[in-house]
Design brief:
single chain; 5-stranded parallel β-sheet; alpha/beta; 7 strands; about 140 residues; Rossmann fold; two-stranded antiparallel ribbon; 5 helices
Length: about 140
Amino acid sequence: MKKRIAFDLDETLGIPIIEGSKIIGFSERKGMKDILEKLGKKYELVIWTVSKRTYLDKILKCGLGKYFEKTYSWDEISCNWKDIRKIKADYLIDDSPHHKAEASKFGLENFYIVVPAYGSLEDQNDSLLWVRLIQQILL
């Protein structure tokens, strides 16, 4: 059985492209497709977002859907922090350190990979840092 990797959506994988009040695309991070394809050969990939299901479904139609075997939105699982045990994930990749801090209370912090947020100063200075952080642990 493959290990399961959960990805946060917004600012971890990229950001939506919005025109007026409509989502017209998804601005993916540099290296996103490559890292998802590599990880997908070794792991089961899922998305876990705090966004609503309707929003997630629109983003998945922008091309992300093919990489993920299962998706979770806050409509299905709302909680104070993303506890990987709730979705039977082995790791969570997220731009928010909040979830890792909460996980540390249960000795699970090593299973949370925090990457710089897309568009942050750290990301602007090194747009592939997030990929290297993931590779160091998972590949």
